[in-house]
Design a protein that fits this description.
This protein is an alpha+beta fold and 193 residues long. It is built from three helices and eight strands; from the N terminus they run H-E-E-E-E-H-E-E-E-H-E. The protein starts with a helix and ends in a 5-residue tail after the last strand.
Length: 193
């Protein structure tokens, strides 16, 4: 009798468990069927980006000429012999160089930058804390050149102006980016008529 009672209690528990599981399984299946049967778009959770300007994560490389900006580096002139140029690097790897003063290559040039170099720059920016830097390192001083670095990647858009008091990490990142970009075989761009 005791054994029969235990079996009966277990079977009631098992029936209750199966009944509960049926409801738990049926609810998501019904919701999925309802979502699939309507023409309404399915809502998806959007990632939260803690930046002023949110952009899509980069897909680096490709055949495009001038697509979305990935990085820009600018050195501004001074009253002396400061190098002045600007480099714009796009996600496709297409890059432009504009030599403005005291540089080997004056004027507009273009080149292709490899994805591996772009990934190296982005990784170093992360390692050196670029996206956490202040937007501006400056003071009321005349005749000092500025370095402006902007990187747009992984939903982040960060621009830093460094003229006075910029941290060593910023200087190191700029030096590494220059070591990757300045030696590239830049080809002069002939103006279109």
């Amino acid at each position: 009798m005791f054994i029969v009672l235990m079996i009966e209690l277990r079977s009631r528990h098992a029936i209750r468990y199966v009944s509960t599981m049926k409801h738990l399984i049926a609810l998501p299946i019904a919701a999925l069927a309802l979502a699939c049967s309507t023409n309404q778009p399915v809502a998806t959770a959007e990632p939260v980006v803690d930046q002023e300007t949110a952009v899509a994560a980069p897909q680096l490389g490709g055949a495009g000429k001038a697509d979305t900006l990935f990085l820009s580096l600018e050195r501004t002139p001074c009253f002396g012999q400061c190098k002045a140029y600007r480099i714009d690097l796009y996600r496709s790897g297409y890059a432009t160089y504009d030599g403005r003063g005291n540089v080997e290559k004056m004027g507009r040039h273009s080149a292709r930058i490899g994805v591996d170099s772009m990934i190296t720059m982005l990784n170093r920016a992360d390692e050196l804390g670029f996206f956490g830097l202040q937007a501006k390192y400056d003071a009321e001083v005349t005749d000092l050149p500025s370095t402006v670095l902007r990187i747009i990647a992984d939903g982040r858009d960060k621009k830093v102006l460094g003229r006075v008091g910029q941290p060593q990490a910023f200087k190191a990142l700029v030096a590494e980016i220059e070591s990757l970009l300045l030696p590239v075989a830049w080809v002069p761009v002939t103006p279109e008529p």
